[in-house]
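Hey team,

Filing this mostly as a record. A colleague (T.K.) asked me to run one chain through the structure pipeline before their review meeting, and I want the input and output archived in the tracker in case anyone asks later how it was produced. No errors, nothing strange. Just documentation.

Input sequence:
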Amino acid sequence: MKTIGPFFLFLLVHLSTSATTPGANDWKLILQDQLAAIMDQRSFSLEKVDVNTGNREITGQGTFFGVTGVHFRAAYTESSAIGDFTLEFPERAELSIRESAIGRLTGGSLAELVPAALGRAVYLQQFGFSVSKTDKQIAALHLGFRSPVKWHLLPGNNFPLQQIALRFQVDHPTDKKQRRVKGILNGRSFLGSTPVDLEAELGQQREALTLRSRLANVGLKSSLQAIAGQSAFQGISLPDAVIDLQLEEGTLSVLPYRKQANIVAQSNLGTVDAWMQNAVESDKKMDYVVVISPPAGFKLSSLNDRLKSLDAIDLSGQKIVLTSEDKDKKESSKIPSLAQMSAAIKRGANLLARLDLTKLRLEHLLRAKELVVSSPLGDYLADVVLESAIDVDVPIGPTTKMSNVLFRLQPAPNNFSIALVGVVDAQVSRDDLVFKGGMDLAMSTQTLSFMSVMDDNWNNPLGAKGLVMSKVGLQLGGSFGGAAILPNMAFSGEIKVGRFSGSSALAFDTRDPAKSMLSAEISQLYVSDIMESVIDPRVMRKLPDEMKEVLRSIRFNDVHLEFVPQPLRVLEKSYEPGFRMGGNVDIMGINGFGNVEIDYENGMLAQGEVDPIDLGPFKLTGAGNNERPGFVIDLRMNKEPKVALNGLVSMLGMQAETEVEVLPNGFRFDLGGKVFNVFNGSIMASAADLERLGSIETSVQMQQDLFGFLNREVTSFIENEVGEAIKKLSAAQGKITQAQSKVNELDGLINQQRAIVRKDMNRKKAKYDAARRDVTNAQKKVNSLDKSIRAKKRELKEKDKAWQVAERGVIRTQIASLYTARGVAWTALEGYKKILEGLGHMNTNPDIHPKVASLIASKVSALGTLEAAKITLEGLKITLGATGKAATFIIEKGTKALINVRRANFAGQLGSLSGGAVDMDMNLEWMGKQMDLRFNFDFNNPLQTVAALGKRLLDQ
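Output structure:
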């Protein structure tokens, strides 16, 4: 804190004790010292001081903050003390509030309190202070600022504030602890042509800055246009009495930082509360809501006589609301004057009021005694529709309710109506269906009716897996006069199965929703669509590809579909649970009618009848007591997949019950029985089109009775053909047999005699072999003695010494002994050789033995006879030709081995085979040889065929 200087204290003491009034120089010193308490002495100088003792006033001129020629004025008291001091800067001076000198003067920056929109263009215009009478200290500083800026208080350059002035008062400026700053901002704007002076307190929280002004006799329209913009009423129709409304007296509040404005005023229609706010941060547009609260007894006909019918409706707490934008109930509740009776409001003029539901007998249905209703308000009754958003759900029966309900009352006498608009949630079985629409209420009959189409699809309706119901429509009706509603409900829509769709309807029991039935009509539907849409995909995956192709070719027409979750009785007809459909069927061009049982997890079974087929050679008719053929499509799990026709088939003289299998390229079936009523056979037939004879291909496999017939009859025919040849060949064969028997007899005798001779020869050979061994052994002994003699002779020759005489004698004796032994051995050897020589001329070939040789000669003669007979037989065979071959085979093998038919079949288009004459393919064994043969077989004359076959075989 700055203190008063010594000189100034001296003057105060002097002035208080002296009767003399201070002069100009004294006051100059006093003022300088007073200013120095709050200002730096370098920031001011007093250049001229004048004293007016009569007025106790000091005036003068000086320099302040660098501005020269500044006039000041000061007042002093009776005790010659400064009371207050003021100065005013010239217009040319532009000393900004942001200057540091001003900050030092006020002990802080005043710029923080100034709206940012003014920037630096806030200039000091006046400055002054007042002095406390008690302690002679400066009690407060007073600063006045001006701003040439035009401040647009609200978005969109609307409602500009001009002639802006700011006044600040700093209390206790020399005491930091007690220092307080107060600020006031004021300026002028216009509501239309009416000037409005606004004032606001400046504080630390800029967001709370509020400019206020008193209003009197201003127009509502001009006021809104001034604040919200000239286009505030563009495209909005308002009653004339509202648009021309004059505000008699009230207040205007503007919150520029919050981009809000508010007018509260009185008018001839009642209290007016107008709220204006920038709704979107980035938008420069101002929205507004004007709430007019008429006084008690107000009649809407006072606005316009055309609205007189509204006076008869019990509408209490009426309010007229103008709004620039639509607002729902939640948004309108934020308006303080609508907090207690908020409702949805539309752009333009609206009527809000409380509607008594008890007088309409709607309190039970809507669960409320009154509603806050709103309606657009114009000069015409037809524009008035009273609406109210109901916060609770409206129950309609045990499983149906309406939510997001909008109550709607149209009061025009020529078009009076009451309705509920909202979302109807209907629980059908386990499904929740949602419908949006309006429910009409008939007050005279206390009944309701509702009709709507659901936006979404109904998947798996009533649990019918795979079905999709779209464009689902609901028709609902009932009475709301009692406490509970039991409505009548009906559903309809479009059902889709695979690629095809049709119309559908749903029978629904509101007392027991589980007892419902879905029915539909579809113009056409392929079996593949059924399998791919309403059957578990696992069933389809197990089907062979060929079967899947077949399903794509079978079509039901004019299909009636039914799905019944639980047993149901409608009128006198009972329905068992299940998923069924029926209709005309087209199976590869074969037409009929059938029914289908569908089980999502297990597959489908279709059965029915088709039209009989009569092509002459081919007929398909009903079997047993059935007039028409049947069909079956069995595609159930754990069953062999089957698509087939069934009935009595007549063809090639055969008639039997069979199944006609349906394949991707047509039909196929097997048939067994008497072919042309003659022989047993198996027929395998196929056709691209059963109704076109030329497309039926037939393959027939004949059986054993034909084989036996051919074997028997052909053998008989051959026997007749080769009888003479057999006699001739038999005679020639007899001679061969006789000659052969003679040869065989001689062979036996020769073998017998040969054995006797060979036995004798073997005995003699044994003796020869023994003699030969004796010769060999004797020769070995002689050779051994000769070797020993040669060895002793060499030893004797080596004993040539005289003293070896004795040894030589011994050796000579040994040599003599050896020679003796050799002589004995040689004699034996020669004897054995004589014996061996005698045996060496023995005969070893039994055939040259006289007894054997004579028999062989007889055999040669017999063989000649046999060969002559054979030559005779072969010549006869050549003469007989093929007949001879067959006769020979029969003679040699017998007739049973002559022919053996192993296979016989024929094939072709049914039309070409139906006469009975066919080209038969056979595999047979003819005279021991396998062969394939094709020949014409006439079932009408089999024996003639046998003769032709026999002749052909003889020519083979």
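Quick notes for T.K.: The first strand starts at residue 44 and ends at 52. The chain has 17 helices and 46 strands.
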